[in-house]
Specification:
The chain has 151 residues and is mainly alpha-helical. The protein is built from six helices and no strands.
Length: 151
């Protein structure tokens, strides 16, 4: 008798939502505890000619180290994620004008506002009024990028 075992490695669809929600809450808590949801901390990190605050570099370095090690262990031990059939690992792509312009726009917006997407969403919950202008602009930019992306 032949049995289909593929269903044994996937979870119900609501599991993915719950896992994403818990991961997002942990990420937001980490941003809040590390001070990275404060735009002044981010702007102080970017002020290399003034009163530079390197704390963001330590937070980013720690996050990269944990992610790098975690992915190496995870990809060796599992054939597929808990809530999916395959791991979606980014593939290298050439650096082009769209990437450079997008990175420049992101950097300019990050430097002027002190927010990037994760901390902006975290800060919305704290009641910071200025972020209520940033998040709609960020969402509009994401929508515009998807509408104009021809790849």
């Amino acid at each position: 008798m032949h049995t289909n075992v593929s269903h044994l490695h996937t979870a119900p669809s609501w599991h993915g939502f719950v896992i994403a929600l818990v991961c997002g809450l942990i990420f937001g808590l980490g941003l809040a505890l590390s001070g990275m949801s404060d735009p002044l901390t981010v702007q102080a990190f970017l002020d290399v000619a003034g009163h530079w605050d390197p704390s963001l570099a330590f937070v980013m370095g720690g996050a990269v180290a944990v992610s790098l090690l975690g992915f190496q262990v995870l990809l060796k031990r599992r054939k597929a994620p808990v809530c999916g059939a395959v791991f979606h690992v980014p593939q290298p792509k050439p650096i082009d004008v769209r990437l450079l312009l997008g990175a420049a726009l992101f950097g300019i917006g990050w430097g002027l506002s002190g927010y990037c997407p994760g901390p902006a969403l975290t800060t919305m919950l704290a009641g910071n009024a200025e972020v209520w202008f940033f998040v709609p602009a960020m969402l509009a930019g994401a929508w515009l990028q998807r509408r104009t992306n021809r790849h």
